[in-house]
UniProtKB/TrEMBL annotation:
Organism whose genome encodes this protein: Gossypium hirsutum (Upland cotton)
Domain BED-type: 22-58
Listed name of the protein: BED-type domain-containing protein
InterPro entries given in the database record: DUF659, RNaseH-like_sf, Znf_BED
Keyword Cell membrane part of the UniProt annotation: no
Name of the gene this protein is made from: LOC121217084
Length: 387
């Protein structure tokens, strides 16, 4: 047998591994599993094992190399035989161990079941490791936890275009990954992916905190009440020029008297929790208790400003406008028309057929804009400005 020193495992700079087969081949760029033989120039598919079979003239899977010397060929054949012997010996020892466990099953049934389950789970985990990496690659390549809000896309048109791009990208990645990629298991979803997504969000928040420290951030507070069980939830969000994050929700259903002092203590605790040096503004609705709490908080924290919610202000203004007799009459008539259309299937179908543009997309937005224009003309006597 030729000495193994003919194939040193050191000095393979740039090779994927220290396998001795890389002395005789190089990877083909952008072709997974394809290797070019340095001796004859043949492209061998199937990885480094196929290349070694090609050098050793092992029949059955690949054509032999015509330029290899007899010494190298025999040495490579011995390497393959030695590797195969190790695999057989490993399998034999594994089977012996499993047989020994089965013989003792009656005496230690509970213990054996547990050991077998662990071993089975370990084997399945090892076998699916490659598949898991492929799923992870597919998940990351198709967007992962990213969404249209992070890209500032809020209109229906841009959202549809974004969905088309993601669908096309998903198809391309799925084609590249190939068949056999299964859905993630419940364990992967609850333990692996959840922890991964949590870490990503955590890292993202840490990046935003650097901007909070430089430019300051706004704490936004919004309440919501469930009309069925009267559950009252207060949501807190933190906004800066780089993005908005949801901080937490507080269930205050058990608090019967939500006066200014309660809101003051709640807002103060959230500011303290986030970091006083980050928050420079608080935005709440225009409820009297909230206004009083915000002003009291400004007295305690001199650098902080309370601001009423502009959207809530506009909502209150529109409610007052809607109470005017002339406006209320128009709104009542519009509600009747809307209820009539959507309460009859044939009218909805007729509306969809007659409200399509050249691309086949619905122009229902235009239908909603016409009453809006008439509304402003009736109130202010002129058409609204359009962009």
């Amino acid at each position: 047998m030729p000495p193994r020193e003919e194939f040193p495992t050191k000095g393979l700079e740039g090779a994927p591994s220290n396998d001795i087969g890389w002395h005789f081949g190089t990877l083909v760029p952008n072709a997974r599993g394809s290797i070019v033989c340095k001796l004859c120039g043949k492209v061998v598919k199937g990885g480094i094992t196929r290349l070694k079979e090609h050098i050793a003239h092992k029949t059955g899977n690949v054509a032999p190399c015509p330029n290899v010397t007899g010494v190298i060929r025999e040495s490579m054949m011995n390497v393959l035989k030695e590797s195969n012997t190790k695999k057989i010996d490993k399998k034999r020892r594994k089977d012996e161990f499993l047989s020994q466990l089965i013989e003792e099953e009656d005496e230690h049934e509970g213990f054996i079941d547990e050991v077998s389950a662990i071993r089975q789970a370990t084997r399945e985990s090892i076998q699916s490791q490659h598949e898991w990496h492929r799923r992870e690659e597919f998940r990351r390549s198709t967007g992962g936890w990213d969404n249209i809000y992070e890209e500032g896309r809020s209109s229906h048109g841009s959202a549809r275009e974004h969905n088309r791009e993601r669908t096309s990208k998903s198809i391309l990645v799925a084609t590249e990954v190939g068949q056999g990629v299964k859905l993630p298991t419940p364990y992967e979803v609850s333990d692996v992916y959840l922890e991964s997504e949590y870490q990503r969000v955590h890292d993202w928040v840490n990046v935003l905190k650097t901007h909070w420290k430089e430019l300051g951030a706004t704490l936004m507070c919004d309440g919501w009440t469930n009309s069925l069980n009267q559950m009252h939830i207060i949501n807190f969000l933190v906004y800066c020029s780089k993005g908005t994050i949801f901080w937490k929700s507080v269930d205050v259903s058990s608090v019967r008297s939500r006066y200014a002092e309660f809101y003051y203590r709640l807002l103060d605790s959230v500011v303290e929790e986030i970091g006083e040096n980050y928050i420079v503004q608080i935005v709440t609705d225009n409820e009297a208790a909230m206004k009083a709490a915000g002003k009291k908080l400004m007295l305690k924290r001199q650098h902080l400003y309370w601001t009423s919610c502009a959207a809530h202000c506009l909502d209150l203004c529109l409610e007052d406008i809607g109470k005017k007799p002339s406006v209320a009459k128009v709104l009542d008539e519009a509600k009747k028309v809307t209820c009539f259309i959507y309460n009859h299937i044939w009218t909805v179908d007729l509306m969809k057929k007659n409200l399509k543009n050249q691309n086949g997309e619905s122009k229902s937005q235009g239908l909603l804009m016409k009453p809006k224009k008439l509304f402003w003309e009736k109130i202010f006597g002129k058409k609204p400005m359009t962009s």
